Amino acid sequence: MRIGVWLLLLGVVAAEIVALRFSSTLKYMPLRESPAGFDQLLAFLPAVVKAVLLTGTGMLIALVASAPADLKTILFAHRPRRITVVLNLACFAALSSIFALTGAGDAQSEGASEWFPGLIHATPIFWFFLLGSWANFVAPCGLWQWTLRRNYPAWVIAFFVSILSFYNFDATLASRIGSLLIKPTLSAASELYALTGNVLACNSTSSEGYPICGSNSFFVEIQPACSGFEGIMLSATLLGLHFYLEARKLTVFRAALVILVACVAIFWLNAVRLALLIYIGDHLSAEIAREGFHTNFGLASLVVVLVIAVASSRLFTRPKTSTERFPLKCVILDAESGANARLFIPLTYLIGSSLFFGLFSGKFFWLYPLPLLVTLGGLIQIRAELRGLTFSPTGAPFFLAIATFLVWLLLVPANAEKAEIFQASLLSAPGPVIVLWLFARLFGSICIVPLAEELAFRGTFNVMIYNGLRPYWSAATAQAGAVALTAVFFGLLHSNFLAGAIAGAAFGVARWRRNELGDAVLCHSFTNLLLSFYILVTGRWSYWP
What we know:
The protein is mainly α. The chain folds into three domains: 2-168, no CATH class; 173-317, no CATH class; 389-543, no CATH class. A three-stranded antiparallel beta sheet has the order 1-2-3, covered by helices on one side. It is 71% helix and 3% strand. It has 21 helices and three strands. The protein is globular and about 70 Å long.
């Protein structure tokens, strides 16, 4: 009964978060235009709330990973006081009522009631007590304090970085921050572009005040995001978290040195990106520059820098290496065996090669077969591990696949404009090229992609999470948590998070039923088969990214 009450409180927290997220307008941004300083500070409130939730989630994970062995007993025996429940319901009702009446930005309009702006200004108080009640629902205050005391530098850094990440800057504020990097970035890009024998001209500005730079007939608007500060912040955050959680424990000086070098590398690669973008657009193809190169180079360079940074940090500690390989079947529910990181290889090859070949593609990804060949090479590389993969078709994976397919169609709307562009590009090619490309697309969707993704997510990532939860939870609870968390990260890999997460949960259930990774692969493959057949019959090509 105690477990049921704790799960009920956890469900209340999740339900209130979802309700406030989708029912509120959160239009605090117009308050930045107000001359009042408090109104301008209030514009940061949505970012602060998101930062608190993100940092609190990180604290909860750390709590599970490092708290005493009796954590499960402490959590399930915890009961919040009645005053906490009353305070939670009152604050939730107040915020829901405010957002139901009107958007926060409307409080500045002439027709707003005299009392309503004051109520808007009181929302930080409602949020403060609501967030506090959520924390107390999940765990006792003493546990939160214990976790914060042990890790307060990391949580403070994570909190402020989250605020900067979540806050949507307007043109004025963004130009102030971006100007710190835009000018040196343009200067570096100009010097690099001069190596081609051309001159990078920045002689005009857009209506928003951003510089417009280019050469001859190709020009681009340099917005604050082009300065690279987002990539620098992201790389510093991810590397900081990695070094904080890394068991080898680098010294602070070495970790800071690696992060600094990575940030400098991101800055210079961003300058290279800008120079190459203009050169490709001016001398080769404007479509490839805008659609392929611009979209993929930033992410590809970020991944390369992060991989090199992590690899170089390991050289400092000279860790022991192990060549032991684990068969697929024994690593799923065995907490004493480690996850085989080699199963990540095919997905790593797939993502990396897709980004690389995407640099040379326009609106239509004609080079799609090439990443498949690279991924096939990764599968061959781990052929020893694949010997443990068995397929024993049963009804459950196929029923789960049908349900996943229907949910996908329900949650992911078809894009008529994208489908029209896709069809026009595809049909512009000769007949044999169309047939070969469609065959490669079907082969990739039904065979290569499901195998690569399931090896990584359900074959390895699920094991890593399970092994982390198993010391504190029962086998069934730990596996359920591993399936759910793996599904969340799987959803992040897709453009529609909710649909991807639900699909990941279905594949995880298929994997969990009989402890057979082959069931997850079959479920994933059959889902993609149904989706591919639906695309070919209806012509809704937008379902193929």
